[in-house]
Write a structure and sequence with these properties.
There is one protein chain. The chain is of the alpha/beta class. It has one domain: Alpha-Beta Barrel (TIM Barrel), CATH 3.20.20. Helix content is 39%, strand content 13%. The chain is built from twelve helices and eight strands. Helix 10 packs parallel to helix 11.
């Protein structure tokens, strides 16, 4: 027995870091989150309210959330408008509606992303209109508006038992948000607006990761310019979110997937401690095989980001069937069923083959 204790003491003296390393490794493994396979379903509540029926592959009517889960989706993204209209396609998504949908998604085991548009309707690279109620507010008041709207929505989510894993402060903002005050023409003011959103999120939900989201994820120059300016001005964020739509680039994904990969890798190398994800992706509903192939490639690109800093991929409105929405990039057919494109979230990416060792040179003989 005495020898056993002595051996243990010697081992502890010789290898003081082993226990710590093992502990850290176990902690990291325990806290690491699985890869996010996501769907933005901001239209879902309206689709259900108008009587749209979703069907599984066998033609049986089924809840859309259950259908998405069966296709491998584990995360749900929901947009928030400030004071939206009741328009079927461009309205709804009020804080109250989003809270109800997030609660429903959480109850089914989905992880949740909240996407603040800071507008009464769509905000994207071409339009970042202030909410009507904020239209005449001077810049200092806009800072308060952003904080209060973000804080209030996050508080409602918390009261409903929802802890978003990710929160976007702004939607596709390469030109800024809340124009003109928050334009990139005045990056100092834009940064203050982003920081107020960040601070409001963290005040309610410190564990939520805050995303700053741009379009054209394959455009490394855009991202270096934007995040260079944001960090120089003291911008606060945890994750860089990217949209990637080969359809809108008017090219096959094979022409830009390497540029997407390079940009993902460059961002985590350039900004240590930050992570990346594809917050939006989509392909033509009439070309499900092409969209499937693209989704597999995008997931592989995000998974390949060093040190597991590629968090996941979200399909934008896969359930938003063209027959209901007029949108050409859903992953739903005219028959009410998901297209084969969504199977890309079920399939595990094939591991990259290991390089074969070089053959040994033949031994010379005299």
């Amino acid at each position: 027995m005495k020898n056993t204790f002595l051996l243990a003491a010697v081992r502890a003296a010789l290898f003081p870091g082993i226990a710590l390393c093992l502990s850290l490794a176990c902690t990291s493994a325990a806290t690491a989150q699985p890869f996010a396979k996501g769907a933005d379903v901001g239209w879902l509540q309206q689709m259900e309210a108008t009587g749209y029926v979703f069907y599984n592959d066998q033609g049986v009517a089924q809840d859309c959330f259950q259908l998405l889960k069966a296709k491998g989706i584990n995360s749900i993204r929901l947009r928030v408008f400030v004071n939206p209209s009741n328009d079927k396609a461009s309205g709804h998504c009020s804080p109250a509606e989003v809270t109800a949908m997030a609660k429903r998604a959480t109850a089914l085991g989905f992880r949740v992303m909240i996407d603040f548009h800071y507008s009464d309707t769509w905000a994207d690279p071409g339009k970042q209109a202030k909410p009507a109620a904020w239209a005449s507010h001077p810049f200092p008041q806009l800072l308060t508006d952003v904080y209060d709207h973000t804080f209030g929505t996050m508080t409602a989510l918390k009261a409903a038992g929802v802890t978003p894993e990710w929160v976007q402060v702004g939607n596709e903002i390469p030109g800024g948000m809340l124009w003109p005050e928050g334009s990139t023409k005045n990056f100092a003011q834009l940064t203050q607006l982003i920081n107020r959103g960040y601070e409001a999120v963290k005040a309610v939900s410190p564990t939520s990761k805050v995303i700053v989201h741009l379009d054209r994820g394959n455009n490394g120059e855009l991202y270096r310019w934007f995040f260079g300016n944001l960090t120089r001005n003291g911008g606060k964020f945890d994750v860089i979110g990217m949209s990637y739509y080969p359809y809108w680039l008017k090219q096959d994904y094979k022409q830009s997937i390497d540029s997407l990969q390079a940009n993902l890798n460059n961002m985590v190398a350039r900004y240590p401690g930050k992570e990346v994800m594809v917050s939006e992706v989509g392909g033509e509903d009439t070309a499900p095989q092409d969209t499937y192939d693209m989704l597999v490639a995008v997931q592989q690109a995000v998974r390949a980001v060093p040190n597991h800093k590629g968090l996941g991929v979200f399909y934008w409105e896969p359930e938003g069937a063209k027959s209901w929405s007029g949108y050409a990039l859903s992953a739903w057919g005219a028959d009410g069923k998901p297209t084969a494109a969504l199977n890309a979230f079920l399939d595990q990416p094939a591991p990259k083959p290991m390089p074969k060792p070089a053959p040994k040179p033949a031994r010379r003989t005299k």
